[in-house]
Design goal:
The structure holds two protein chains of two kinds. Chain A has 16 helices and 20 strands. By secondary structure, chain A is α+β, with helices and mostly antiparallel strands. In chain A, helix 13 runs antiparallel to helix 14. Chain A starts with 8 loop residues before the first helix and ends in a 39-residue tail after the last helix. Chain B is α+β, with helices and mostly antiparallel strands. In chain B, strands 14-11-13-12-16-17-15-18 form an eight-stranded antiparallel β-sheet. In chain B, strands 4-5-9-7-8 form a five-stranded antiparallel β-sheet. A three-stranded parallel β-sheet of chain B has the order 1-3-2, covered by helices on one side. Classes of the chains: A alpha+beta, B alpha+beta. The interface between A and B is large, with 92 and 89 residues.
Chain lengths: 492, 375
C-alpha cells in the first residue's frame, strides 16, 4: 500500500471528528474496507474515498454533512450502489455517506395512498408493504430488487411501466433533505400541493448534487383490476418497431411496451430459459392494465395491429407465473448478456418514438463499422434505448471502442431531438455529453439551482455538469477543474 | 412589437405595457430595461398570486402564439407560451389527441397555466402541469434564454427546471415556450351523480372510489357548506364507460347515470374570498367541516384539492391552522381585499426558496412580491 491510498491529514482529522460525533463503528478509513465503495454499478469508474460513513440515522447524516461543510471537504451520498452512470462514485479524499442502513418503513398510510420510507429502503419493499392494501408503488427499475428509494430519488428512476405511470418524480410527494450546510428542510409533503416554489420537482433527479435525502414520502396506486401481458414475435426489428408506433397511434396506452432483438433474446434464453418465440428477430413484451373490459378489448386491437405487421407468434400470459416468466427474460437481459460476451457496456439514450426504425438502422451501421456486436433491449414505448455493446476486454483497445460506439449512439439520440439519458442519469460518465444536448446558457441556468442549494459545491461535485461554475462568478467564466479544490475553502 | 394600453395587475397599474412577439423580443425587453416586470398571459388568473410590490412594465406573452411542432406519433407538442389552451386543444383534437389539462378559465394561455399551476377535475387521472410539461424555454431577468427538459417524455438529463417554473408566477423568468406530453382523446364519456348528505358521507364515498379498481377521470364534489353531490366521470372506450358506470352505482349505493357532467363541473366558485385548498386526500370530510358553514365550491375526491368560496370576513389564519394537521394549505385566488394573506405561513424551506429566487433574479425585478413570503 502506498501513500496515494491514504487519506490526507485533513480528511483523517475529519474522520476523527466524525468518530467522536456519530460513533467509531460507523466511520471507515481502512483502505481495504474502503475498496468496496470505490464504484457503483458502472465499474469503469473507480475512486477511493477518504472516509466512508455508514449512517444509521438522519442525525448521522446531518452531523456528517455539517462537519464536511466546516472542513470544506466534499461528500457523496450512496444508496445501494446500483447506478449505471457513476453518480455515486466517491470524490478522492472526500467522504462517502452510505445510506443503506437507513431502511425503516416509517409510515404506511393506505387511506391517503402514501408511504413514508427512509432512503435505504429497497424499491421492491415499498410495493411489498403496499400489497396487503391492494396498492403498489409504480416506478419499477429493472434493479428494483436491490436499488434503494434514495437512489431512485437522486436519479429520477424509471422502469418498464413509466410509459403509462411516469417516473419517480411523478410518485414522490415529499422529501426530507439535508442541505450541503447541514440544514434540514422538508420539500413537498403529504398533500398534493404546497404554496411556494416546487423545490421537490427540481430536487428529484438532481443526482445527489443538491443535498442528501433522509426521508421520502411516496404516492401509492390502486392495484388494477386486470393486468395482462402479451409476448409477440417478429421476423424483423422494423416490424416490431412499426407495431409500437401503430399501438400508440391507435390511442392505446399500454402499461409497458418492451422490445428485445435477436441477440438479446439469445442471451436471455441462455440465462433464464424464458421460452421466447424461436427464430424471432425481435420480440415485444406488451402489458395492458386497467378494468377487465378495457384490457380485453385493447388486447384484441393490439393483436390485430401486430398481425398486420407480420407478427408470427402472439402469446398471452395464462397466469401470473407465465407473466413472470415473460418479464424474467426482459428483466434479466442485461446480466444475461454476460453469458454471450466476456464484457459488455450498456448505454441509455432516448429518441422520439417515431424515429425508432431509422435510428435502429443507423445504430446497426455504426456497430458494423466498429466491428462490435450490439444487443438491444429497450423501453420501446418511450423510445428509451438500452444498447448493450459486447466486447472482449482481453482485446487491446476494445473497451475504448465500445465506449466510443456508445457515445456515437448518444450523438444519434441528440441529433434526433432526444436525450442522452432516459433513466440512468448523467453522473460521471456522460457529463461531457451534456454540452451536446444543452447550450452553455441552459447549463448555466441549471447551475443557478445548484448555487442556491449548495453554494460551496460540496454535494457530489464533478458530476452532471461538463464544466462546473463557481457560484457568484459571472456566467461564461469556467474553471478547468472537475471538482472544487477543497483547499480553496470559501469560493466567493 | 406592439404597445397596448395599460391595464392593472391585481390592483397595481403598470407604467408601461409591452407585447413582444418572439423569445428574442422578450430578451430585448429585459436587457433594455432595468425596472420591475410582471409577465402575464391572458390575465385570467392575476388574482392567484399576491399583488406585485411594483410593476414598471407589464409584459404580455399573448403575441407568442405559435404552435411550433406537433408530431402526433410521438404524442408531443411544442407551443409558445401565449397560445390559448383552447386553441391548442382544437388543433390537437383533429388528430384525436389532447393536452390532459382542464383548468376552466376561458382564454387562458399555456404560459399562464404553467405559471399559476392551474388544473381542473381531470387531474385525478392525468396529474397536473408538473406531470405533463416535458420541456420549457424561459428568458431570465438578465435576458438569458435557457431551455430545460426536451421533446421526449423520458429524459433525466440535467435539472428539470420546468417544475421550478410551474406555479412560480413569472418570478424566476418569463416563459416563452412549452413542450408537452399528450394523451389520446377518449372515445366515450359518461357520468354518475350521487347525492351527498353531509361531510362524513362525502368522505365515505370518496374512499370507496379510490380504494376500488374503477378508473374515473375525475370525481368532483359540489359542496354547499352542509351537503352536495358527487359527480364521477368515466372516459374510455364505450364498453368500459358502461361497465364502470354500472359498477360505480353499485359501489356507491345508488346514483344517476348521465352522459354530460352538470354545468358546475370543473368551474371555479366565485364571490367572497375564493380559496384553493390542498390536503391529504383522506382528510376531505375534516377539511369540509373546518370550512365556514356558508362555504361553497367543489372538491376533487381522491386528490386532496378543493376550490371554495368563503365569506370575506373568514379568519384565514384560523382556517389554515385547522387544516394544518392534514398537511393542509389554503391559497387565495380571488379577494376584494388586496391586503389579504395570499399564501399563508412559510415552510422550513423558505430560506432555500429565497436563495433560488435570488440566483435567478438577483435584482428582484420579476413579479416582485407575488410569491409566498413576499418573494
Amino acid at each position: 500500500m502506498n501513500d496515494a491510498d491514504r487519506a490526507s491529514p485533513r480528511t483523517l482529522e475529519l474522520a476523527d471528528r466524525l468518530r467522536a460525533a456519530i460513533g467509531a463503528a460507523k466511520v471507515l478509513t481502512d483502505p481495504a474496507q474502503l475498496r468496496t465503495y470505490e464504484c457503483d454499478g458502472l465499474e469503469a469508474f473507480r475512486v477511493r474515498p477518504g472516509v466512508v460513513v455508514l449512517a444509521e440515522h438522519r442525525d448521522d447524516v446531518v452531523r456528517t454533512v455539517k462537519l464536511c461543510a466546516e472542513a470544506g471537504i466534499p461528500f457523496v451520498a450512496r444508496g445501494s450502489g446500483t447506478g449505471l452512470s457513476g453518480g455515486a462514485v466517491p470524490v478522492a479524499d472526500g467522504v462517502l455517506i452510505v445510506l443503506s442502513r437507513l431502511r425503516q418503513i416509517v409510515d404506511v398510510d393506505p387511506d391517503n395512498a402514501r408511504m413514508v420510507v427512509e432512503p435505504g429502503v429497497i424499491n421492491l419493499w415499498v410495493t411489498r408493504e403496499a400489497a396487503p392494501h391492494d396498492q403498489l408503488y409504480a416506478p419499477d427499475p429493472s434493479s428494483q430488487q436491490v436499488c434503494s428509494i434514495g437512489g431512485n430519488v437522486a436519479e429520477n428512476s424509471g422502469g418498464a411501466h413509466c410509459l403509462k405511470y411516469g417516473f419517480t418524480v411523478n410518485h414522490v410527494m415529499g422529501a426530507e433533505v439535508v442541505l450541503a450546510d447541514g440544514e434540514v428542510v422538508h420539500l413537498g409533503g403529504r398533500a398534493p400541493e404546497h404554496p411556494g416554489l416546487d423545490l421537490l420537482g427540481a430536487f428529484v433527479g438532481s443526482e445527489g448534487t443538491l443535498g442528501v435525502v433522509t426521508e421520502v414520502t411516496v404516492r401509492l396506486l390502486r392495484v388494477p383490476e386486470s393486468v395482462q401481458t402479451m409476448l409477440v414475435g417478429f421476423h424483423s426489428v422494423a416490424d416490431a418497431a412499426g407495431t409500437v408506433s401503430d399501438i400508440i397511434a391507435a390511442g392505446i396506452l399500454p402499461a409497458a411496451i418492451e422490445m428485445m432483438d435477436a441477440l438479446a433474446i439469445e442471451a436471455a434464453e441462455a440465462a433464464v430459459q424464458c421460452g421466447y418465440p424461436e427464430g424471432a428477430e425481435a420480440v415485444l413484451v406488451i402489458e395492458l392494465d386497467g378494468p377487465q373490459v378495457e384490457v380485453d378489448e385493447q388486447f384484441e386491437h393490439v393483436e390485430t395491429l401486430a398481425r398486420a405487421r407480420h407478427a408470427f407468434e402472439t402469446r398471452i400470459a395464462a397466469d401470473a407465473e407465465d407473466r413472470a416468466l415473460m418479464w424474467k427474460g426482459r428483466k434479466s437481459a442485461f446480466a444475461a448478456v454476460g453469458r454471450i460476451s466476456p464484457s459488455y457496456y450498456v448505454q441509455d439514450g432516448v429518441i422520439p418514438r417515431t424515429r425508432l426504425p431509422e435510428i435502429l438502422a443507423s445504430m446497426s451501421t455504426l456497430a458494423d463499422e466498429a466491428n462490435l456486436r450490439v444487443a438491444n433491449v429497450f423501453h420501446a414505448g418511450d423510445g428509451n434505448l438500452h444498447p448493450l455493446i459486447l466486447f472482449d476486454d482481453a482485446v487491446p483497445g476494445a473497451p475504448k471502442a465500445a465506449e466510443d460506439l456508445g457515445f456515437a449512439i448518444l450523438d444519434l439520440c441528440i441529433e434526433a431531438g432526444g436525450s442522452i439519458t432516459g433513466e440512468h442519469g448523467v453522473g460521471l460518465e456522460k457529463k461531457s455529453k451534456m454540452a451536446g444536448q444543452f447550450t452553455p446558457e441552459d447549463l448555466d441556468t441549471m447551475q443557478l439551482v445548484r448555487c442556491a442549494f449548495d453554494p460551496n459545491g460540496l454535494a457530489n461535485p464533478g458530476k452532471l455538469f461538463p464544466t462546473p461554475r463557481l457560484c457568484g462568478e459571472r456566467p461564461g467564466v469556467r474553471t478547468a477543474d472537475t471538482a472544487p479544490d477543497p483547499a480553496l475553502g470559501e469560493v466567493f | 412589437m406592439a404597445a397596448v394600453r395599460s391595464s392593472s395587475i391585481a390592483g397595481v397599474t403598470p407604467a408601461d405595457v409591452v407585447t413582444p412577439a418572439s423569445a428574442g423580443e422578450v430578451a430585448d425587453v429585459l436587457r433594455s430595461t432595468t425596472g420591475t416586470v410582471v409577465p402575464v398571459g391572458a390575465g385570467t388568473k392575476t388574482g392567484w398570486a399576491a399583488p406585485p410590490s411594483s410593476c414598471d412594465l407589464l409584459l404580455r406573452t399573448t403575441a407568442l402564439d405559435r404552435v411550433v411542432e406537433h408530431v402526433p406519433g410521438d404524442l408531443v407538442v411544442i407551443a409558445e407560451a401565449g397560445v390559448p389552451l383552447a386553441t391548442l386543444q382544437a388543433q390537437l383534437a383533429e388528430h384525436n389527441q389532447m393536452l390532459a389539462l382542464d383548468p376552466p378559465e376561458p382564454g387562458a394561455t399555456l404560459g399562464g397555466i404553467v405559471s399559476a399551476n392551474a388544473s381542473g377535475p381531470r387531474r385525478l387521472r392525468y396529474g397536473t402541469v408538473r406531470d405533463l410539461l416535458i420541456g420549457v424555454t424561459v428568458v431570465l431577468a438578465d435576458g438569458t434564454t435557457a431551455r430545460s427538459g426536451g421533446k421526449v417524455v423520458k429524459n433525466v438529463a440535467g435539472y428539470d427546471l420546468g417544475k421550478l417554473y410551474t406555479g412560480a408566477h413569472g418570478a424566476l423568468g418569463v416563459l416563452v415556450s412549452t413542450t408537452w406530453r399528450l394523451h389520446p382523446l377518449p372515445a366515450a364519456a359518461g357520468t354518475v351523480t350521487v347525492p351527498v348528505a353531509d361531510a362524513a358521507e362525502a368522505g365515505k364515498l370518496a374512499d370507496l372510489l379510490v380504494r376500488s379498481t374503477l378508473t374515473p377521470t375525475a370525481a368532483e364534489l359540489r359542496w354547499d357548506g352542509a351537503a352536495g353531490e358527487l359527480v364521477v366521470l368515466f372516459e374510455s372506450i364505450p364498453a368500459s364507460v358502461d361497465a364502470q358506470a354500472t359498477a360505480a352505482i353499485e359501489l356507491l349505493g345508488g346514483g344517476e347515470r348521465t352522459h354530460e357532467p352538470p354545468p358546475w363541473f370543473g368551474e371555479r366558485p366565485a364571490g367572497g374570498v375564493v380559496l384553493r385548498l390542498a390536503y391529504e386526500p383522506h382528510a376531505l370530510p375534516r377539511v369540509l367541516t373546518a370550512l365556514p358553514a356558508d362555504a361553497s365550491g367543489t372538491a376533487s375526491a381522491g386528490t386532496g384539492v378543493a376550490y371554495m368560496s368563503v365569506p370575506a370576513d373568514t379568519d384565514l389564519a384560523s382556517l389554515r391552522a385547522a387544516i394544518a394537521p392534514y398537511d393542509g394549505s389554503a391559497v387565495v385566488l380571488e379577494a376584494a381585499d388586496r391586503s389579504v394573506d395570499h399564501w399563508g405561513p412559510v415552510p422550513d424551506s423558505f430560506r432555500l426558496m429565497t436563495r433560488v429566487k435570488d440566483q435567478f433574479d438577483p435584482g428582484r425585478r420579476l413579479s416582485p412580491g407575488r410569491l409566498l413570503g413576499g418573494l
